[in-house]
Amino acid sequence: MADKYTQLVSQGLGKDLAKRLGLPQPVELRRYSAGAPLVTGPVLVSGDSPGADDIATTLLGWGLDVRRNALPKEKLGAIVLVLDAVQHPDDLAKPVLTAGSSLRDLAVNARVVTISRTADSAQSPASAAARQGIDGFLRSLAKELRAGATANGILLADDLATTSPSALGALRFFLSGRSAYVDGQFLTVSSTKGIMPGDPEKPLAGKVAVVTGAARGIGAAIARTLHRDGATVVAVDIPAAGDHLARVANEVRGTALQLDISRDDAGHRIIEHAVERHGRLDIVVHNAGITRDRLLANMDEGRWRSVIAVNIAAQLRINEALLASEHFKDSPRIVSVASTSGIAGNRGQTNYGASKGGVIGMVRSTADHMEPFGGTINAVAPGFIETEMTAKMPFAIREAARRLNSLKQGGQPQDVAEAIAFLASDAAGGITGGVLRVCGQQLVGA
Question: Same domain, yes or no, for 264 and 332?
């Protein structure tokens, strides 16, 4: 559903009126389009460590216009703040305040990205304090930015260089239009696994991907995006959605599999179809899900069990089949769609929140089982996304939900799909067991 308010206040008289009245002023976000520049403007790389120098050299190699010192009044497309060598909270002042002095020079839809170390691997309380302090700093900064700008962070294990493959993959994702609705979030890189794609426009070339719940909405957007990035897609949905499913499969030049994923043999059917029709299986995206909302005091057993069965129990069974299959052993990827309801909760969604919280727990636990054959599993947690379902919400509730995030607008199905496509790529091979929220940095809840 179109956000006419955002369109109105993004330009002309509507923009001037909103400014005078102090109304929210969301801008149309910079999203990915083929051939568009990675960043729209110079990139300031801030930081005194050798890792900062390495990042600057890498960005120059990508053809970007890189600055190590800001030029007066120059509009910046991005700031990359490299904090990998910070050992004490006192060390934060200089690099953070130096970067802060350039924030007013950020262009519309600019990017701020921090690169630092994980706090749980710190060797001293002071180091842990500094590293965790970056978390609070980054999330707070994201709420200060305006005009579609976002701030996100990359966390590195202690033994990883700033230019390890998945660190660069995450950096490229955060700088690009693919991360338009990801704000105030971190990606943790835990290993040197990962390969940067030879063709950034086709990072999934040669892969075969299964997408459940692909007939419409977010699932259809995922199928289209994986196809755009080079994958052959198997679109899966229930038989009742067969007509819509066939249209999506035809559009992405893939195949359709009508299947109730809650069946005991769903995993085996998915593997069999992918291998027989396409010769392999590399990526599985668990997107299928249902809601049966009701306050817990009014919740019946049927509503509870049906949501659990589809949203998490089905994923567990399918994953068991995948992990046992010889056809899912070549650096495979699993990406599950969770929800911010499984993190912060949502009134009337105890069953849904339990199922999506379960997805997050499953992802964390399954990561170790994927590691022996170079596989990864991650989750994407959408916030308010413009879909057929949200379009049916009462107007006032829908408008409030749209504005209660740092970007002051709802996301698009494409935004969820872009995050999934990155996590499914070889470039994300060093990222596993994590949850990436695609919510514009919600202002309410966790």
Answer: yes
pTM exceeds 0.85, yes or no: yes
Hey, CA dihedral for 277, 281, 282, 287, is it positive or negative?
Answer: positive
Q: Return d(Cα 287, Cα 290) in angstroms, integer.
A: 10
CATH assignment at residue 92 = 3.40.50.720
The per-residue pLDDT of the chain, averaged, comes to 93
Integer Cα distance of 272 and 330 in angstroms: 16
From the list 225, 171, 184, 223, the residue with the least C-alpha distance to 52 is 171
Return the active site residues. 352
Q: Residues 159, 212: one domain? A: no
Pair (163, 251) in one structural domain: no
Question: In this structure, are residues 209 and 232 in contact, taking their beta carbons and an 8 Å threshold?
Answer: yes
197 located within any domain = no
Both 256 and 180 in a single domain?
A: no
The domain tally of the chain equals: 2
pLDDT tens-digit map of 387-436: 777 777 677 777 777 888 899 999 999 999 999 999 999 999 999 999 99
Domain that holds residue 296: 208-438
Pair (389, 283) in one structural domain = yes
Residues 297 and 253 placed together within one structural domain of the fold: yes
H or E segment to which residue 363 belongs: helix 350-370
Whose CA is closest to 270, among 213, 337, 312? 213
Q: Which residue has the tokens 């879909």?
A: 387
Q: What would the pLDDT profile of 317-332 be if each residue is shown by its tens digit?
A: 999 999 999 999 999 9
Do residues 252 and 123 share a domain?
no
- DSSP per-residue string spanning 22-64: T-----------TT--SSSS-EEEE-SSHHHHHHHHHHHHTT-
CB 273 within 8 A of CB 249: no
Mark whether 273 and 183 lie in a shared domain. no
- DSSP conformation letters of 141-181: HHHH--TT-EEEEEEE-TT--TTSHHHHHHHHHHHSGGGTT
Kindly compute the dihedral angle of the four CA atoms of residues 368, 372, 375, 379, in this order, to the nearest 10 degrees: 0
Residue 16 CA to residue 20 CA, distance in Å, equals: 6
